């Protein structure tokens, strides 16, 4: 069984209902399970019909939930970083660095970076506390960028560390004769923070690409665009070394229909079902039927969870 399972796919295909029912499936088989929403537009609480929020909450026996709040995560991280710097750096340097950090907060991608920080923290700190951690992710584009961050952030951190080391060496040269200042720059807090962050990214990446520990499950509907988007996303994740655990075909029409409109839809669906089974033939494939009502609440989640036959 994988310790970490990501559920992703195009918007509206049923990622949350699929991941939530799978989390219930795992929990009811005795696995201590944590389901985490990384989608800024959370719907995990809605589907479990409880308020979850940004603190871990028990949802059922063996089952816990968490919704990452990107705005709060970003604010908390900035506050921690500034507090660490204020302990050791001169007010002039702090003022300049704080200006740079404040500019980063409003820059494109800052929300993804904040979510990624929380994701790394969960992967590193909670994998020993839970048998399985399930991530209910945002639509595909957002998630692909999120999972590619270990690569991108790693290179960026190398660049920052190199620049900071050069700056520290120059500052140390200017402190000849002043042992106190020389010692302060030798143990540079900014460099320490950058090194610690780099180690965390590397550790998270090691777990993400370990096929024994982590995988990604795609959810799609038997329609043209979700199939195209899934195929592209699988290629991108393969490039980053992330294993694909399977594909869930959601909202499949029943066979016993007589309505003319639905029969026409079923005919189109058969075409795309054949395409799905052809394109993703080497993967675990699972079908979830279209239910007459919204999948919401434990009763419906249990109904879907019965369709899972094995732990991914």
Layout: helices, strands, pairs:
Blueprint: E1 4-8, H1 15-28, E2 33-37, H2 44-48, E3 57-60, E4 63-67, H3 70-88, H4 91-105, H5 110-126, E5 132-136, H6 140-173, H7 179-186, H8 189-208, E6 214-220, H9 224-239, E7 244-252, H10 260-279, E8 285-289, H11 298-305
Parallel strand pairs: 1-5, 1-6, 2-4, 2-5, 6-7, 7-8
Antiparallel strand pairs: 3-4
The outline comes out as: elongated
Number of strands: 8
Rg value: 23 Å
At CATH level 3, the topology of one domain is Rossmann fold
Query: How big a fraction of the residues is strand?
Result: 5-15%
Query: By CATH's scheme, which homologous superfamily of one domain applies?
Result: P-loop containing nucleotide triphosphate hydrolases
Overall pLDDT level: 84
Largest beta-sheet details = 8 strands, mixed
Q: Which consecutive residue ranges, at least 5 long each, have pLDDT under 50?
A: none
Annotation field: number of helices: 11
CATH class of one domain: Alpha Beta
Terminal Cα separation, in Å?
6 Å
Q: What's the order of the H and E elements?
A: EHEHEEHHHEHHHEHEHEH
Family: Belongs to the arsA ATPase family.
InterPro entries: ArsA/GET3_ATPase-like, ATPase_ArsA/GET3, P-loop_NTPase
Organism: Calorimonas adulescens
Protein name: AAA family ATPase
């Amino acid at each position: 069984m994988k310790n970490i399972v990501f559920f992703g796919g195009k918007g509206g295909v049923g990622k949350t209902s699929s991941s939530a029912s799978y989390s219930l499936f795992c929990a009811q088989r005795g696995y201590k399970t944590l389901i985490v929403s990384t989608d800024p537009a959370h719907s995990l609480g809605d589907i479990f019909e409880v308020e979850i929020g940004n603190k871990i909450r028990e949802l059922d026996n063996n089952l816990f939930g968490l919704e990452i709040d990107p705005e709060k995560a970003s604010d908390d991280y900035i506050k921690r970083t500034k507090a660490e710097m204020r302990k050791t750096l001169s007010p002039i340097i702090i003022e300049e660095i704080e200006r740079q950090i404040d500019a980063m907060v409003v820059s494109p991608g800052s929300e993804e970076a904040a979510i990624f920080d929380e994701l790394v923290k969960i992967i590193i700190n909670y994998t020993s506390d839970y048998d399985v951690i399930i991530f209910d992710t945002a639509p595909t584009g957002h998630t692909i960028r999120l999972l590619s961050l270990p690569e991108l952030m790693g290179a960026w951190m190398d660049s920052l560390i190199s620049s900071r080391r050069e700056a520290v060496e120059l500052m140390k040269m200017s402190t000849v004769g002043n042992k106190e200042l020389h010692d302060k720059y030798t143990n540079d807090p900014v460099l320490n923070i950058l090194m610690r962050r780099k180690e965390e990214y590397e550790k998270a990446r090691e777990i993400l690409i370990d096929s024994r520990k982590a995988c990604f499950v795609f959810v799609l509907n038997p329609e043209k665009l979700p199939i195209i988007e899934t195929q592209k996303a699988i290629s991108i994740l393969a490039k980053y070394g992330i294993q694909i655990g399977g594909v869930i075909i959601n909202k499949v029409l029943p066979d016993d229909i007589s309505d003319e409109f639905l029969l026409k839809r079923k005919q189109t669906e058969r075409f795309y079902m054949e395409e799905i089974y052809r394109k993703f033939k080497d993967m675990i494939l699972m079908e979830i039927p279209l239910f007459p009502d919204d999948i919401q609440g434990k009763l419906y989640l249990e109904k879907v969870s019965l369709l899972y036959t094995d732990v991914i």
